[in-house]
Amino acid sequence: MVAKKALLGAAVVLLLWAFCSAAAAGGEKRFASRFRPLVTKESRTRVVETESGTITAVDVRDGCAGAYHLQFITLEPSSLFLPVLLHSDMVFYVHTGRGRVSYLQEDYKHGTQSIDVKHGDVYRLEQGSVFYVESNPSPTREKLRIHAVFNAMNIENTAEPFFGAYSNICDLVRGFDEQVLEMGFGVSKEVIQGIISAERPPSIVPYSQNETEKPSWKEGIIEALLGVRGPRDLPNKKKTKTFNFFSGKPDVENCYGWSTAVTNKGLKALKGSNLGAFMVNLTTGAMMGPHWNPKATEIAIVIHGHGMVQVVCPSNPSGQSNKSCECKNTAFRVKEGDVFIVPRFHPMTQISFNNDSFVFVGFSTNVGQNHPQFLAGKRSALQVINKEILAMSFNAPNSTLVEELLASQRESIILSCTSCAEDLAKRTESEEAREREEEEARKRKEEEARKREEEEARKREEEEARRREEEEARKREEEEARRREEEAARRREEEEEAKRREEEEAKRREEEEARRREEEEAARRREEEEEEARGREEGQSEREREGEEEPRRRRREEEEGGGGEAPWEEGGEGEVVRRSKVAAKKLYKG
Ligand SMILES: *[C@@H]1O[C@H](CO)[C@@H](O)[C@H](O)[C@H]1NC(C)=O
Ligand SMILES: *[C@@H]1O[C@H](CO)[C@@H](O)[C@H](O)[C@H]1NC(C)=O
Ligand SMILES: *[C@@H]1O[C@H](CO)[C@@H](O)[C@H](O)[C@H]1NC(C)=O
Ligand SMILES: *[C@@H]1O[C@H](CO)[C@@H](O)[C@H](O)[C@H]1NC(C)=O
Ligand SMILES: *[C@@H]1O[C@H](CO)[C@@H](O)[C@H](O)[C@H]1NC(C)=O
């Protein structure tokens, strides 16, 4: 066991020395979720592009479950596709050129095995194989073109991630720690350094098998002598294990074309694989009669000409459509390099145009148990159904109609169909145009609806803004009014305050005035009193002066009848004043 492992390790290291591959493992991107029966050449992704060759790829789905990865590998003459570790089974068809495919299978006891391949060959490599491809030198510069399908089933059904179709050996080794490699391979640091420091090469590099190959004269002679096609097919060399579409008789052949399929019965290499291969060549104005595959899904690549393909959806009795594997009846035009996929149960037909043949090569799943079922022609599955029952299933009044339906077609499988492709193409195109128009109309409508909605939203927004503004204005106004009112109240208060203050002031002034007047009065009175007092003093002295006068005056007064009382004997200011005035009058009169 350990020894075997070491052996494999050594083999790998040897391979590494020779060709440290950098094949960018294709198919890492996820698969499109919606089923598309047609994948055009233009929609392939470019995986590798070097001077020595290119690899393009497409991912396809069969309805809703399975998924497949296709690669189109093109090698210039004398080139090498560097070794890769295959992640899934690979079935390939050699479209043009010649070359050699070398592989190392899990039971590497046979060492590296090789098969020489040429135009028309089919072969299968098992999952887990390491393989590489060399292209022969070619005087006509014919490229080696390989169409390969990788069974990528379970991609979405398992938790296992999809690592792409294959990975290059170089990366597998170089991913390890250096010391692990040193110990693991039992080699020096320098050797590992040499491995690790080398630049990652492109997937396809120039390569010349100079010494080993002696193409030469032998080829022609042996062919001529033995009637075989070339030295590579000679049994003394590595025995041919491929299947070739162009050797031997087709499975079905008539003047409208031929078709051949290969399963594990025809090709030992397909043993244990669920993939098979087929090729159909429709001559001008011919059709592959309507048929369906009960078990297989077909993935076909157009290798020559144009054609029309029509696929019918198996009806769903519940009437519910499953979005994840949506299906609708469809017809489409295909051209060289396009890929089309027809899931099982889907009746289909392929039709060639009047001016050219239409050739496609394909891969089908579950080939072991699949038997295509034809609707029309001598071999129609409908032929074996009781006509009465058939009539009922078509809701025909009696069996005459269905008998007629099945009686006329004398051919089987590949049928004549002059101008069918042209008419179907025209109808499809006008249908497509109509659909496009409808789609556009729908889009326009949606656009309009969207615009309308936007407009409405805009209006609503404007309205809202206006309302908000109004609200704000109203609030502002209210605020203003409130402010004004407050101001007025404040002013009123102030005025009142001012008035009160004024009144107080006035009162104060009045009181002041009154006080002042009182004081003045008091002062005046005091003055008068003083005056009076002074006057009295003066009067005394006067009386003293007029001592003799007094008795005379008193007499006169007595005569006049006046009171004899003294004027100052009475109290009160008024009296005083009056008396003083009277006195003064008397004084002046006197
Ligand atoms: C191929 O062989 C020829 C002569 O045998 C030699 O001149 C040439 O260099 C070789 N080419 C390579 C790439 O080895
Ligand atoms: C397909 O058939 C036509 C007519 O028989 C023939 O000319 C043509 O070469 C065939 N094409 C292929 C790829 O076999
Ligand atoms: C749709 O198909 C998928 C895949 O077969 C399946 O898992 C799913 O349940 C289906 N959905 C419905 C609504 O039938
Ligand atoms: C054959 O006819 C179809 C449709 O009429 C046309 O599209 C196509 O280009 C023609 N092919 C050749 C090789 O003339
Ligand atoms: C079958 O039905 C068609 C149309 O209704 C009628 O013309 C024909 O005579 C019927 N044939 C038989 C055998 O009943």
TrEMBL record:
Signal peptide: 1-22
Stretches assigned to the Cupin type-1 domain: 243-402
Keyword Nucleotide-binding among record annotations: no
Listed InterPro entries: Cupin_1, RmlC-like_jellyroll, RmlC_Cupin_sf, Seed_Storage-Functional
Region (Disordered): 425-590
Domain of life of the native organism: Eukaryota
Keywords attached to this entry: Signal
Residue spans of biased composition, Basic and acidic residues class: 425-558
Pfam families: Cupin_1
Biased composition (Acidic residues): 559-573
Biased composition (Basic residues): 579-590
UniProt entry tagged with the keyword Signal: yes
Gene3D superfamilies: Jelly Rolls
Alphabetized SUPFAM superfamilies for the sequence: RmlC-like cupins
Protein's UniProt name: Vicilin-like seed storage protein At2g18540
Source species of the chain: Ananas comosus
